[in-house]
Amino acid sequence: MPAVRFLPVLAFVCLSSLAAAQSEWESSIVYEGDNGRLVYVTDAEGNRIPDFSHAGYRGGGVPLPDVGTRFTLSPGDGDDTARIQTLLDFLGTQSPNADGFRGALELSAGEYQIDGTLVLRRSGVVLRGAGDGDDPATNTILRRSGTRADPVVLLGPVAEAGTGTLTRRDATRDTSLIRDDVVPIGARSFEIERPEVFSVGDAVTVFHPATKTWLAAIDGGGTAEDAPWGVGQHPIALARTVTGLDGHRMTLDAPTFTRLDAHLSPSYVYHRDRSRTIENVGVENLRVHIETAGPTSETHAKDAIRFVLVENGWASGVTALHFWRAGISVQHSRYVTVAARAALEPHSPVTGARRYNFEVSQSQLVLFIGNRATDARHAYVGNGTSYDSGIVFLDNVSEDAFTSSESHRQWGSGFLWDRHVERGTSGSGSGVAARRLHIGNRGDFGTSHGWACANCVIWNAEMNGSSA
């Protein structure tokens, strides 16, 4: 059966969930059970709406940690980058406690000039301020001026990473084919050929290659007049941890978000290389203010805060202003919570590859909760193609967006926008102002964007006061 068959069905069924604003309506495919937990109904092929509760720090459902302060620092004269970086690096040399934390560097209230980039490159380090308001008497303000494009704050060992870095194979260890003819959407377990080469706790990747047969089943990616996707482009790759082994059955820490059909492309499991990944890092309670040459300039910092190669990280109580690409960008990372607060007033031309206020790229199981975006093009967006999955946008607000929040291109899967609110009337072009959330096929928009969001859900969205 062609894999594309169930894609539009799920998309349109989930869009009808907007009717949940009517208290008498309840979905027949996901509903609250007698114990208060959600019940997920499986269809005849074994597919179901995925369980999105695994997104966020430590797999969701746990509070962000309260990490003890090891050092405090006040603003100095001139550029504060080196003073702060010295303490962050020293913290990174300390022995972690039983929970994996080395401690927090707390910046007192005031303004800090940051001409460079503050880098949290070792696990267990937290950067904390006194608050994210605009009054330096009671809040911590990181002020960037000049023309450097580097992020103001970087959490991760590198500033950039290559395609598929999160799911890169550990070539020193063995792999195994998956036995099941079909692994349905929402599954957490399946049979494997070689269980003896894995152990509980192993970091693994579930890999479904982009074969000629699979691409034919999805109409070459649905790219309309653009070139179709090529063999090997946009494979399904799920970064997971083994939580159970029972005979040949492997159980993982989070579900699948795309149907894996062996008749279209045999899938397999391999050990995931985590050698470059850091974990237990966060940034809290501060304001990043980027000075620019004007609202349509882009000769300044590209991102305010960027995560790269992080597992179990967070940003909370943070406000970012005047970036040209992203206020918070989560790249090549997993199990990150962004409860930042606000990404406001990006400064750039209103055109492609800009104004992605809250962005995820080649990342998985990330939670964006309780945030506010203004003047965005794509306020809450996935931009990492088929390497993006299990992304949750919960209780977020977008004001005066120029176009839609969305999984942007080439088979992002398993996105949820829950209690998403749109306000304002910005937009460019006929009908764009009304299109605030988009899931489905983008055809030849951009560069062969095609099927942009597979098996994605919108729930209880509010569009300028309307539920539709």
Topology, pairings included?
Elements: H1 6-15, E1 30-32, E2 38-40, E3 69-73, H2 81-91, E4 103-107, E5 110-113, E6 118-120, E7 125-128, E8 140-144, E9 153-155, E10 175-177, E11 182-183, E12 189-191, E13 203-208, H3 212-217, E14 236-246, E15 249-252, E16 260-261, E17 268-271, E18 278-290, E19 303-308, E20 310-321, E21 326-331, E22 334-344, E23 358-361, E24 367-369, E25 372-374, E26 380-382, E27 389-394, E28 397-399, E29 405-407, E30 412-418, E31 421-423, E32 437-438, E33 453-454, E34 457-459, E35 462-463
Parallel strand pairs: 3-4, 4-7, 5-8, 6-9, 7-18, 8-18, 9-19, 18-20, 19-21, 20-22, 21-23, 22-24, 22-25, 23-26, 24-27, 25-28, 26-29, 27-30, 28-31, 29-32, 30-33, 30-34, 31-35
Antiparallel strand pairs: 1-2, 10-17, 11-16, 12-15, 13-14, 13-17, 14-15
Task: Describe this entry's structure for a reader.
The chain has a 17-stranded parallel sheet that branches. Strands 6-9-19-21-23-26-29-32 form an eight-stranded parallel sheet. The longest helix is centred in the N-terminal third of the chain and has 11 residues, at 81-91. Residues 1-23 and 428-433 have low confidence and may be disordered. Helices cover 6% and strands 35% of the residues. The two termini are 33 Å apart. With 468 residues, the protein is mainly beta.
Helix percent reads: under 10%
**Which class best fits the helix and strand makeup?**
mainly beta
Poorly predicted runs are: 1-23, 428-433
What is the beta-strand fraction?
25-35%
User: Which descriptor suits the 3D outline?
Assistant: globular
Q: So how many helices? A: 3
CA radius of gyration: 22 Å
Main β-sheet: number of strands, strand sense, barrel status? 17 strands, parallel
**What's the mean pLDDT score?**
91
Number of E-type strands: 35
Distance between the termini: 33 Å
